[in-house]
Amino acid sequence: MIRKLDKITNKKWFSSLLWVLLLVIAWEVGAYVVAGAKRTPENILPHLWQIIGAAATGKKVAGGMTALQAVFDSARATLFRALLGFFFGAVSGFAFALLMKLSGVVEKLLFPYLMLIQLIPVLGIAPIILAITGDINVSRVVIAAILSFYPVATNTLAGFKAVEKEKYDLMHICAAKTRMIYTKVLIPSAIPYFFTGLKIAAPMAVTASILVDTLQGDGGLGCLLSQSLKHAMSIYVFWLIVFFSAFIGIIVSKVIGWIEYSVSPWRRC
Amino acid sequence: MEKEIRLQKIGRRKSLRQRAKESKKWQKITTVVYPLIFGAVLVGLWQGQILHRWFHTDTFTLPLLNKIGEIMRDNMDKILENTGATVSVAVIGLVIGSLLGYLVAVLAALFPKIGMGGPAVLGAFASVPVVAIAPVLNNWTKDLSDEASIRSMISKIIVVTLICAADMGLNAYRGLTEIKPFSEDLMAIYAAPKRTTLWKLRLPNSLPYVFTALKVSVPASIMTAIVSEYFAEYITGVGRQIRENIVLAQYATAWAYIATACLIGIAAYVILMAFQSILLRRYS
To answer: Which of B49, B191, B216, B236 would suit a FRET pair with B273, their CA atoms being 20 to 30 Å apart?
Structure first.
């Protein structure tokens, strides 16, 4: 019996499960305390089952939609734009890293500015970008793209630079052309770094997209979030969004992990 | 000896480009000069209103640089006050969060069976968008104080703390556990107690990882402070001022605050780099 228990506790998922359980217990204890002390506990810390219940009921909260429908509907708009921006940012980040690797002049020209982009609080500029582009949808995509550009570019560049000298030497011995060196050695070895960059960038793109939503009322998760916070609709919509965005943040990095796994067969051993 | 001389004579003279590539001095000069040229071009494009034409905008939404500088000089007191609010939130949150994250990492490294999942759960926190946490904490801290300024500051600090703790916990855990196998074996051979292994091996080994974490979390703490200001009850801070001024259509003032935010970010990074070069001298 004890050995069996030991076996279970040694499993990798066991400790994660334990931590999640701990968090749930802490949440519920907090919820009980709040429920006893406050007049409107659902604003501060509702019970988890209340949130799940709000997701499950068919009660209409806004525009003839149930809470879950409303969340999914606006999530579609927000996430699509986040994805679009993320895609542009990732592609241009990779392209810039490649360009910087290809030409030393470009690298010297741009690298300090690449560092600067990271230090500029892009989300702080979000309202200005909205003012410049004038269109909320365009600015959402632009901001998500800028935010995902930086981690992808720097990580990919680091990947290009981490290639050992021996590999170059071997390629030179084989009299490989520059294009060959890139397609056979540099790009494959930078792929893991590229995906690390993507994993950092993805939650940021989602955050950016939600934040830009709150700036102007034009649908989207952020818009729904601020409406619900101002009690224009059930407060449980707000809690659903909190959990939904947390879930999206976690699931997105998992999905990128799977994609990495499927495009890099040499890591599967 | 003779052969070498002859070889040199036969060898083609190197092209100017090749020679420039090999000269160290030239390389050093260009690392400084090229970015400066790029910066000068950028400033020129901005001041010459060519950027405005590209982005189809006017000097009202994208004011000229000298105008921004002028406003920054005129509103120095107010800007400094707001900078103080943002920086104090970011710094306090960063310190508490980093300590907390490190503590979790140490506990997780000491009790691997239970602790293994801890950093993973913390990592989940890192991917939760700030916009989702900030309003919740606003509600939580409502009763902590009667002063709106104090309670919204506390809620902002907690948001920054959570984000920084996640970063630090993940990286420090890696630093505490990914040690060279032989050194761990050596400690086992010495029959060193867990405490000694922690002090002599794990903690020093984690120091570079701590700086890796800080490189991410220092800019992130400033960004988080700015974003949580958007949702805060009390109107203060650089981020909030950007938003307030844009709502009032005072774009030039908003740009002055954006410039301030950039300067805060750069200053924080420079300070961090200075610390790193002092503390990590042993490692390089």
So the answer is: B236
